[in-house]
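User: Fold this; tokens only.

Assistant: Input:
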Amino acid sequence: MPVSKNSSKRNRKISKSAVQPKQALPLQRLPSDEQRDSHWYKRPAFLWGLGLGIIGVALSATVFLPRPIVEGGQTLSVSDPSAATFYVGNGGLLPLEKVTAAISICRLGNIAGDCDTYKGGLSRPEWQNHRLLQDEKFPVILSDLLKTGGVVPPNADIAIAVYYQPWFFPITRMRPFRFVSRVVGHEEVWTPTSIE
């Protein structure tokens, strides 16, 4: 019995479909509007959190930084401003090692000193190599080094350089403090001034 052309074509189509079956594509769910909106803040929130965490760590680390301080400047005797007592102390939490104070004359009447580097100041044995815990201090009496005969010219300018070593970092560092003599009422006192 003769086979028609249409039936042969139909058989070829059936055989091809049997040999190469079509694979069904997996269904993909489109994100809803709520899911799409929830992604925009995830990355900025992470970056904000990371930045705030770094800032918090940096601020907490400053609490543990060494903080030598110089306080005082009140005169022991109103008639002798050179008898002022300064106190070198530790304003931080961690101990300071080998703390030494040295005084430099920046200006004293007609005498002009060198306070550009604050190095080369004069010191005494009792002002050297102290170990200071938190809030511990030792006195620096100006008249022990500077003899002015009870007279200090107005606007005299001195620098007290504090040398120290943090207990965890045995390298000597230096921090300067400046004081200027001023007349307050009938007294002449030393007041701190900014470091230029």
